[in-house]
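Students often ask why inverse folding is considered easier than folding. One informal answer: many sequences map to the same fold, so there is more than one right answer. In these notes we will look at a single instance of the problem. The structure comes first.
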């Protein structure tokens, strides 16, 4: 049993004022593996006060000083990569190959921001004016459980690159990962108060950060419901807000696609991060003339994509993070059947031979209509919907008929055609015949998938206010 008692305020590990203990689970076994003591609104206020006090000096640091700090943070996180990997597998249940990538991403993303800062243009002439990109102040960073350490490191590195100080409210379900990050970043030796980390409930610590007048900016990744609450809560003080919310991303399989390569890509895009990915390609649009061929190919591919023990190297899909999430996913599988979709693979319950853990059978429905619940709502589990179409124009219309707009995938034998179709998809990022991540490209959503962009110089912009000065 691990007990995590401390939060991090003003450069020190402190006991929180809050006294609630929250259970941490291993989702592969359902066992309680630890407890975290949660901070409360007073702890959040203390952290905000520390970040506010640190801001004047930190905002005046030079580009080179901040690059040096980011490089120290990167090295400190890299030194703890194995500990982070262990925490991710144990507490989140990511399969080992995914967890390796996630543990490395946490330090790589800091290095990425150091590179962005080297090139970032803070002074920009505009006619007779000199425009300075000036840091906003204290940033509140709120992260979800599906990539807690990666989001802490990415959001924090971006805020610091811009010259902002930060208060971080990690997912309360990810405290083992947060502890590794907290200890590592402490080793980087940043000035006290520049970053502060408060474990706590969203409606307590998150809400305090959202409403506090000394916080200038919120960057949030998580559900649309909470995103709306943050937007409303920020309105009183006109905070700048970046929201990375959910998605129901389309994978357009064009009629010229080679299924030998397209089907594995579609399955990987759909089951990414055990299905708990905001960018998962969960609506697979397939030409009706090739539907039977696609169904046979995807059934074979899913059979080769097993859900199971995250520590087994053969496992492709790990457990859902919590019982609540498992039940939610089961509910969607039931709903899919009730609404008349045809179950091609998988179904309710655990995979064969598994009697514990929040594991879901990898599931694919076909003959799905775009007005069915499983085609409209984000499931956040390994459940895919195949929607047949007749023409390319109809496929694009179905792809765009969603309240979301985070991501899209196009699979085709013709790159130019793929780029032409990608241009017509209403989403913040579209990948054609690939799953590669480009860290310099902006990331964020159209429509109800969010507001604003993260990553690269676009991400840094969101922590800065342009100030124009004209001197006569
Ligand atoms: P959530 O949105 O409830 O939680 C995300 C973060 O927000 C957590 O740190 C939480 O403590 C905090 N939070 C909760 N209420 C808050 C409030 N009122 N003010 C400020 N912060 C608050 O996400 P969840 O419960 O972990 O997951 C629910 C659903 O959200 C999932 O099923 C999935 O559909 C979606 N989700 C999306 C993403 C994504 O990457 N877009 C990530 C996680 C979850």
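Output (designed amino acids):
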């Amino acid at each position: 049993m691990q007990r995590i008692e401390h939060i991090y305020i003003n450069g020190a590990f402190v006991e929180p004022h809050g006294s609630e203990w929250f259970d941490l689970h291993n989702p592969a076994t359902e066992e309680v593996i630890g407890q975290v003591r949660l901070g409360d609104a007073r702890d959040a206020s203390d952290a905000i006060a520390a970040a506010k006090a640190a801001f004047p000096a930190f905002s005046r640091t030079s580009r080179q000083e901040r690059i040096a700090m980011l490089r120290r943070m990167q090295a400190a996180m890299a030194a703890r990569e194995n500990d982070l990997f262990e925490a991710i597998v144990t507490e989140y249940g990511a399969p080992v190959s995914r967890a390796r990538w996630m543990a490395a991403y946490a330090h790589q993303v800091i290095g990425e921001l150091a590179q962005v800062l080297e090139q970032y243009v803070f002074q920009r002439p505009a006619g007779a004016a000199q425009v300075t990109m000036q840091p906003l102040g204290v940033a509140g960073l709120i992260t979800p459980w599906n990539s807690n350490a990666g989001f802490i490191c990415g959001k924090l590195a971006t805020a610091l690159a811009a010259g902002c100080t930060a208060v971080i409210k990690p997912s309360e379900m990810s405290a083992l990962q947060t502890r590794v990050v907290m200890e590592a970043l402490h080793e980087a030796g940043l000035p006290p108060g520049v970053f502060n980390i408060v474990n706590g409930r969203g409606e307590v610590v998150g809400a305090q950060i959202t409403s506090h007048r000394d916080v200038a900016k919120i960057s949030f990744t998580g559900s649309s419901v909470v995103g709306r609450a943050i937007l409303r809560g920020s309105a009183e003080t006109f905070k700048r807000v970046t929201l990375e919310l959910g998605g129901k991303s389309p994978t357009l399989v064009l009629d010229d696609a080679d299924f030998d390569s397209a089907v594995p890509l579609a399955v990987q895009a759909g089951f990414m991060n055990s299905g708990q990915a905001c960018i998962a390609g969960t609506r697979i649009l397939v030409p009706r003339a090739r539907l039977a061929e696609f169904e046979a190919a995807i059934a074979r591919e899913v059979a080769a994509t097993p859900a199971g023990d995250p520590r087994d190297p053969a496992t492709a899909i790990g457990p859902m993070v919590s019982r609540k999430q498992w039940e939610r996913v089961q509910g969607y599988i039931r709903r899919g059947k009730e609404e008349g979709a045809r179950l091609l693979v998988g179904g309710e319950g655990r995979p064969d031979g598994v009697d514990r853990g929040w594991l879901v059978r990898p599931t694919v429905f076909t003959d799905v209509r775009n007005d069915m619940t499983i085609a409209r709502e984000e499931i956040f589990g390994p459940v895919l919907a195949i929607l047949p179409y007749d023409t390319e124009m109809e496929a694009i219309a179905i792809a765009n008929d969603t309240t979301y707009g985070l991501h899209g995938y196009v699979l085709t034998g013709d790159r130019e055609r793929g780029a032409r179709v990608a241009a017509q998809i209403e989403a913040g990022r579209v990948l054609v015949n690939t799953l590669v991540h480009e860290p310099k490209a902006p990331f964020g959503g159209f429509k109800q998938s969010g507001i604003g962009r993260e990553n690269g110089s676009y991400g840094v912009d969101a922590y800065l206010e342009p100030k124009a000065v004209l001197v006569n």
